[in-house]
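Q: Focus on the chain.
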Amino acid sequence: MVMLSASVSQTGRLFFTRSLQRQISSLTHLALVQPGHRRAPVLTSDPRLGGACSSAAAAVLRRQLQPGSATAFRSRRSGGAAARMLAAQLAAAEQPRLAELAAELAADCGWALFSCSFEDGSEDLIALKLEGGPHDAHCGDILQAIWPVLREDSLRELAGETQAAVTSALLWTVSKKTDSAVLVLNAEGALLHCNESGRDMLDGGDLLSDHSGRLSCARPGETAGFYAAVAECARNRRGGAAGAGQPPRELILFLEDRKSGMRLPVSLTRYRCAGSGQPLVVAILPRQPDRRRIEMLAQKMGLSPAEARVAALIQLGLSNREAAHIAGLKVQTFNTYAKRVLAKMQAPGRAEMAQRLTWQASLGRAS
């Protein structure tokens, strides 16, 4: 059974969801739900009993309750252990109306209880207040048919603007603040979307290029292998829907960069969003940081402009003779600058200094 973090558990709190009120109204005017059971806050269809969910609780609740398909639905004994546990949580709110409802639940008086289990091991407890209507006798059959969708709608409503803001922040970060090229592909390898670094990489054409959504490797002989790897990644079902079960398997493919001749790793990961019929493949490719950005970072780390220029040339992996020629310096002068750079950055060697600058540069696109 899924246990929620303490930041979500709010004993005695009830959260109203309009989705629950709207879709359960044909069965009853009052439903109480514990999604995930035991530690989760109670959801209610009555706006007089519950308030708005805090943004922090909503975000955590929505993230932790991504159960996948329902596996079992069963009736629970009114007045049984599950009912008494729910009653105790209502009583903790210290509201007269909730105290009455708690007493009714514990005493098996006018309620129908059901539980729905999901693939991730979580179990929802649903309590319906019986009203003597025509649907009382078969409310369980109706609830079983609608609950998985109704649950998702209610959790999505709770997350509301908070979840939208989180998604927007993540997309903005991927688009603007990473120097890794990120490509989103379908199972056939067609390009659906990419971030700015991905577009820069494709426009350069030294590793991959884009022809109206059809990708080609810079080395023609590698294109077929690239598409085969994407198809294999899309077929791999390990990990299931995003956020559920084991993490999806990652495939690593090496492609040759036409300009440098280096073979660079491409990470391919299957992404299956709950509710989507088709899997996607996310490709992440490393990108060499811009030399001007390296110089800027080096100056922010305490180097003079001349020393920063030397550091950037070292970071490119050039020999001292090659770097000195580009910088317009004598080799001996370049060596002197290189020693100052290592001393100021407290780096034991050129490789460590280059790694430190590359890592700093990969953190984001500072202006």
About this structure: The CA atoms of residues 278 and 331 lie 58 Å apart. The radius of gyration is 29 Å. The domain at 178-285 is CATH 3.30.450.20 (Beta-Lactamase).
